[in-house]
Design a protein that fits this description.
6 copies of one chain form a homohexamer.
Chain A: H1 7-13, H2 41-54, H3 59-64, H4 68-83, H5 90-103, H6 107-121, H7 124-132, H8 141-155, H9 162-170, H10 175-198
Helix pairs in contact in A: 5-6, 5-7, 5-8, 5-10, 6-7, 8-9, 8-10
Chain lengths: 211, 211, 211, 211, 211, 211
């Protein structure tokens, strides 16, 4: 049960000053020491577009920049799955991203995509719910079925069977939608593991976005 | 990778308006229909003090208010463990609260005590780290040992043994401190379950606190 | 497949004498070295009442006695939940206590509350069943639903939802009963962890009670 | 915290009479309806010997009696592992039996072999500890290593490797002893599953033995 | 995505020669150093029959040969369960053996009984499916129910109840069949653990059988 | 313990003919009904190259062919990670692929990449070991550390920390190698889930390759 204090007072009460939790997150992006590499013209343009539209380049892209082929392949797959036309809205795709990342407790992805859910929904607590426990959110039956599938696929993929696909069809998802739910859940199962394996740090700017 | 948009634009893009995620959280506090009961003079005074110091009465207290004995017992135990003098700072106790609640994925406690970590530390991302994965935070050895003990005690209490207590003593914790770490972890293992069993909803004001 | 022998013969066959399993359990109550504190008049009276009614003071109370506020708060909460009027019988509450403690494999609570189930039911094997596997007991549908809820809440509280509450309502439990089931399960999730964290030892007298 | 009452008083307080927990356990041994078969002379002699030495025929033997080959094979394997000469004492073998059965929460085996630990040790609480949580018992390093191996082999056999065998050798176990520890843990992993699959009920006489 | 190369070319590309994965598997059968013992006439005859019918003596039998009583008991139980008349076909029993061993990730049993499924079915990919994930196989409802029961009994025997037996009866299994499903699943839960505890190695000849 | 019989005899003994386990696997590649799409020239050339070098187009590529962008992105990422120069040999990358897919029990990936391990190593049983339990294989310390990291990252990515990276460095892996181990483990965590979500079937030709 928190108190109404200024940050300064609070910090004083907490004893010796702590190093800020985000210290170094924008300069030392991962725990691996990987030599830099010059960006290809395409990737340089992509980074410039990120700067223009987002105000920064997401650290995950910089973390892949040591190898042009890896960066290009990741960006192509990511942008197709999360931004290309789909029967799933962008918000739905970000909700999947966060619910999957919450199961895998991936700090990078929860920070970056929690911010995306807050922004796309215009409803900051919805982002918190996806991070904390999507089962506690008041979701439509469609949303709940979508997230249940994505999280089961994350937790025990060997148990996913026709009954699970049928449950999605009953909520109106097409087979193409099912592919997209699976593919979004799957790419975050990939990214969560690259991020955890390398201790990837999210851009500190995400924390305050769309609060 | 989120965009720089106003909330209004974002909401428009997301399609049909969603009901806000916190709708009803301040009026229907749990999923149980429990008859109200008049507060005892002591509890009325306590609620008034909450209003004065926090600006609101935490929903967990209101949720217990149907039964005066339960409310008084919970408040006494809670306030002793979280606010009375201890070898653990209040921030440390709140960090335990959140790390335990993250293991148990308890929405109520993560929202309320995540806010407390943000306030007491004056470092909002520290709150996020406790919610998302305390292992990704840059903690002192003391803090890490404290949280490892609390989370092991949460996840598999039957495995906690003398070696675990010794690991705390090596970081300078006294036996009394060990009791306090255990007791704080334990009360949140209790509260997480009361909250989950009743679908307890956090006061919506917590979401924006100390961001 | 055991044999009909006197204890003496059995002990002889087992080779070198073992230290009795309860050695020290009544004198060194936990693994923590906590300075004693004088009991408040209320708590001294409570301990005297325990001596009178039970013949001994449960070790859990003595273990909390190093700090008067903690002892008073625990005793108040415990006695309210386990002994005050409720839609649940005292036996039902003790059955929850043991089934929860069995999931958490808590030695202290299984010994103390296993004895309580034996006494309250007048049926010693019922106590064994709660300790070993409540699913193997021939329970009423009401009892089974109650224990299934309590154990699910123990094992994976993040999965408890409206369907689980509805399953209780279908067996005739009121919302107040649901609160009490949750609260009893929850306090044992707390006590199990305090006991495991401190290696709390049960009074040796429990072992032979109501056999 | 149980009360000093006669069973009669306790039963009265508990409300409507419950059917005793062991009702039918000595007459309907499993949930399967299997046609009886005449015992072979060897098995008839074995049953007679059980009656003479134990005072009863363990239900597990009667449960196998529908098929002479299965009964003979089980009895031969069981008696060799549990009763033949070994570097492990009979008590040690029974301790393994109970710790394994506790992991698998097997009612039949916990009742029958919990009684055996009580009898062979002459120390009833040692039986309770094996049932409830062997880690809470004050064991010799040899006993602890033995049970840790047996329980790991039960819980995650795919993780057992040379390091685990070496840990046993360090406590003085020979390779033959290691085989015996493994074989005893293994046969109870078998019996636990036959008992659970068939809802096998233990002879009611076990409950009161060696208390 | 593999290439069409001769083994020689492939090995060359893979860099420094590796020791073959089966090296020593036919000579050092387990990680335990157990003194040999002369075979009884019955067991000598049994080994000779294995040589004649299979072309070799399965290593599991040789691994038990250090102790005549253990070998005889294991052979008797194994042959009764897997080869004697039963409502389950031999193929069905081997399918259970492999699905259970896959849950337990037992190398010995997966190699030996995977070969048996390939041979008895005349369908090598069926053996692969049992090893990899039986849920991905196109099974009859009867087969699926049988394997679901066997694997649940393996993974969480404490959860097996009347509903599970009823699910088998609905597919036409008799109570005797249920016993046999349970007993086959159970003996492999035993054998998997003896094999894992001792690092038992399968005869190398199994790998190429019935491909 | 299998018998030396012709497939024909075996099939006869097994009772009514079963449908072959691979029936339909080469024609109905997934459980989703997704409209085909014309291949881009690049992808058409890629498919032709697969036909030429492998003799077939892997079903995973055909399964992605309904959408040119998804196919191109997957192929680019896959080929970079598995075929481009790396400090990891191609065999090592395939060993990771199979060990990860074994944890996730992914039928498609185990069949396709099990074949790759057999081919690249020239040692078929090595492929079996990766499928069944990599811990049972006689691996170099380097290989074991690599697979332990990959499987921990698969099973509990939230627990991967600096100690895990250090364990790889101690075996001589560079930071770039660590990235590659993580990225290969991660892409299979993705592919396993796409395959399981869609019931993707492996080309039947894989089963017999390099046996």
């Amino acid at each position: 049960m928190s108190k109404r204090n200024s940050k300064a007072t609070a910090a004083k009460r907490a004893g010796p000053a702590r190093v800020p939790a985000t210290e170094g997150d924008d300069t030392r992006l991962t725990a691996l020491d990987l030599p830099g590499a010059p960006l290809s013209p395409e990737m340089a343009a992509y980074f410039a577009k990120c700067e223009e539209k987002l105000g920064f380049v997401p650290n995950v892209l910089k973390a892949y920049a040591f190898d042009g082929a890896k960066l290009a392949a990741f960006a192509a797959m990511y942008n197709d799955l999360m931004l290309a036309p789909s029967g799933l809205s962008k918000l739905e795709r970000e909700m999947i991203a966060v619910a999957v990342s919450a199961h895998n407790r991936c700090y990078y992805c929860l920070v970056a995509h929690g911010a995306a859910v807050r922004q796309l929904s215009g409803d900051p607590p919805l982002g918190e719910l996806m991070v904390m426990n999507y089962r506690a959110a008041r979701l439509s039956k469609r949303e709940r079925a979508m997230l249940d599938f994505a999280v089961k696929l994350t937790a025990e993929p060997w148990q996913v069977e026709e009954d699970d696909r049928e449950a999605l069809r009953r909520e109106g998802f097409t087979d193409r939608d099912i592919f997209d739910i699976a593919a979004v859940a799957a790419i975050f199962n990939m990214s969560n593991r690259v991020a955890s394996a390398t201790d990837m740090r999210p851009n500190s700017v995400y924390h305050g976005q769309a609060r």
